[in-house]
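COMPLEX REQUEST
Ligand: calcium ion
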Amino acid sequence: MKYLCKITFVGFGFDYWIGGTKLIDDRKWVWFNYGEEIGYANWQTGQPDFPNVEKCLQVWKVGEKLEWNDRTCENSLRFICERYRTNARWFDAVDFCRNINMKLLSIGSHEENEQIYKYIREASKGFEYWTGGTRLIDGQKWVWFPYAEEIDYTNWGNGQPSDPNGEKCLQVWKQNEKLMWNDRPCDVQFHFICERYDQENQRTPHI
Ligand SMILES: [Ca+2]
Ligand SMILES: [Ca+2]
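STATUS: Structure written out below.
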C-alpha cells in the first residue's frame, strides 16, 4: 500500500508535521510544497535546537498553544509526497527523494496506476511526472530504482517505449483521460513524486 498526500497537516494526537523543511539548501526554512521561504514563525522557546539533524518542521501543543519545533525528518514522515512547482531532471529527482529518505515513485499494478492518476488529477499541478523507472543499467531491461526490481506491470502509451538509445527514464503522463507511460530522455525536467520505502521491503538499494 502506498500513501498519497500533500505534506500539509498530517499527524496524530498533538504532534503534527507541517510542510516546512530546510532540506533544500540546509540553511533556509522553506515551505516544502512551494519552495517559498518561511516568513511567519512560531518557534517554541529554545527551538530550533538541533540545526544539523533536525531539518523538518513539526508543530505541537504546548499548554493551550500550538508551537513549532524542528525535528528529524525520519521520525514519522510516512507519506508519499510531491514537491510542487518544481521540475527536475531524473537524477535530481532521485537525489531530492533520497535526501528526505524516500524514493521516486514506482507503480506495480493497474490499481496503483489508477490511484496515482487520481492523485495527479486532484493535485492539478501538471500532467507529466518522473517515476523511478529506468533502463539505464543495460539500455534494455526496465527496472525500478533503487532496488533494480524488474518492471512487470506496464502501461505504455501508443508507440512507447520509442527510443532505446536516447530515452532511458520512465515518465507517466495524462493521455486520453488515462495515465500512460513513456520513455523520455533522463535530462528533461518534469514534476516528480517521492514515496516512502516499503516497510516490508527494506533491502539495501543496489543501483
Ligand atoms: Ca527541536
Ligand atoms: Ca518515448
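REMARKS: Residues 110-123 form the longest helix (14 residues). The domain at 4-71 is CATH 3.10.100.10 (Mannose-Binding Protein A; Chain A).
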